[in-house]
Amino acid sequence: MINIFLSRPTTLPSQFEKAHGDFHAFLEEEGLVARRLGSTDYSIDAPLKAIIRIMDECKGAIILGYPQIEIFQHVRRSATVSKEPALLFATPWNQIEGSLAYGAKLPVLVVTHPHVQGGIFDHGVTGQYVWTQDLAVRGWHEGSGFKQVFSQWKDLVQRPPRKTSKA
What we know:
Layout lengths: L1 E6 L6 H16 L2 E4 L11 H10 L4 E5 L3 E3 L2 E2 L5 E2 L4 E3 L2 H12 L4 E5 L17 E3 L11 H15 L9
Parallel strand pairs: 1-2, 1-3, 3-8, 8-9
Antiparallel strand pairs: 4-7, 5-6
């Protein structure tokens, strides 16, 4: 079994729970142990310190962008008030945990619900593909496209760590 860090909100809206349960079972079938602060791991340390410790024990990370914040009326750079379409954002912890995973040089797989935006979920920001999928649909992870992306990510996770030469 290989430890991976799973970034997702502590609680999910009810329409996502069953599909996420299926995805979690899929990860276990793939030989992966999804680790999360407040779910599999608990600590007396501050959350940031605890997450760094957990990531040190992981070989990769998956960032799941579930909608957590929905803004219906907003002002864009043009200073005009917009009511359509609504803006969707994930938990800010996705941004923090994703950044920590990239900083730790872990292979990172970013999966987001449609229209979730900002930071790690914006295409082109990290230099890696952001997989967009309706995370409320059961079996979303069973499609051939996702399986190909997942397989490439898992290959990176399973590679032995590079040896660094000491000068």
